[in-house]
Amino acid sequence: MTSPRILLAAYNLHPKKQLGQHFLSDPSTAKMIATLSGITSEDVVLEIGAGLGALTIPAAKTARKLYAIEKDRRLIDLLKTEILANRLSNVELMEEDILKFDIKKLAENTGQKILIIGNLPYNISSQIIIRLIKFRSVVIRAVFMFQKELARRITAQPGCKDYGRLTVMLGYCTKIKKLADIKAHQFFPKPKVDSEVLEIKFLETIKYPANDEALLFRVIKGAFCQRRKTLKNALAGSELNIDAKTAQNMLDKADIDSSLRAEALTISQFVTLSNVLKLHVAS
Ligand code: SAH
């Protein structure tokens, strides 16, 4: 693997900040991440943000098939050359935006569930996760690199400041495992913070299933969108379109203190609240 600095210079390219471009520059780290992903020769892998191919190449060496998505048109030819140079015939490169890409269709076309990997563009990591949760019925698991700040939010416990919308949505339907710490100096250009590799496994059986999952996710979003307010006021001021009296009523029925803030609620309390709200909407 040629170093990203040299490769980019050879093509007269500069990293784009708005695309969250921080390329892995240590081939042994890239290989380690590919190994930790647990890819087998049966797997169809989707890589988000292939960049210069640091993960693409080692991952494709074990996968049955690898679909690599990259939004930056400038990198496509370069990537094609890297793939050819490594004599890989099982890689399909797609110039696409992951936030618009239909993962379900890909799974249908390949006839099997997909393993997703990526050193995610940090500026859209949260949006990617929310999208992934929607598509989770066709996903085996995801192995992603996140900047520390987001990794902390994903794995936070109730009551702390990092606990938020993503924590609760993921806590509802996934099991998270930390696989590795990656230092900032292993990227080019060097980001401000270190990163973590997390494995996100989607649960076959949800412990406290909501009667209406879409409503649950709206309640979570509403509760956290003004997270400094009490639950009653946050819910009343949210997209849920309920007034303060109804919010109080719902919280009473769910046996939740309305003066608490969203960060104090456990996942099962969010589920109860959304189930109560569901009954209210239906009646
Ligand atoms: N996997 C490479 C690059 C990681 S940087 C490595 O580890 O070295 C993140 C990559 O995601 C960049 O190449 C960036 O261009 C790409 N990217 C950014 N936004 C994207 C989007 N919406 N859809 C697909 N790729 C995107």
Structure description:
It is a single chain. The protein is of the alpha/beta class and 283 residues long. The chain folds into two domains: 4-202, Rossmann fold; 213-282, Helicase, Ruva Protein, domain 3, CATH 1.10.8. It is 40% helix and 18% strand. It contains twelve helices and nine strands. It has helices spanning 4-10, 27-36, 56-62, 76-85, 103-110, 125-134, 148-154, 165-173, 213-225, 231-236, 244-253, 267-282, and strands at residues 23-24, 44-48, 65-70, 91-95, 114-119, 139-147, 174-182, 187-188, 195-202. The strands form two sheets. The chain has a seven-stranded mixed beta sheet with strand order 4-3-2-5-6-9-7, sandwiched between helices. It has a two-stranded antiparallel ribbon with strand order 1-8. Helix 6 (125-134) packs parallel to helix 8 (165-173) and helix 9 (213-225) crosses helix 12. It is elongated. The mean pLDDT is 96. It binds S-adenosyl-L-homocysteine (SAH). S-adenosyl-L-homocysteine binds next to strand 1 and strand 3.
List the helices and strands and how they pair.
Layout: H1 4-10, E1 23-24, H2 27-36, E2 44-48, H3 56-62, E3 65-70, H4 76-85, E4 91-95, H5 103-110, E5 114-119, H6 125-134, E6 139-147, H7 148-154, H8 165-173, E7 174-182, E8 187-188, E9 195-202, H9 213-225, H10 231-236, H11 244-253, H12 267-282
Parallel strand pairs: 2-3, 2-5, 3-4, 5-6
Antiparallel strand pairs: 1-8, 6-9, 7-9
Helix pairs in contact: 6-8, 9-12
Bound molecules: S-adenosyl-L-homocysteine.
S-adenosyl-L-homocysteine binds at residues 19-24, 48-52, 54-55, 69-72, 97-99, 119, 121, 124.
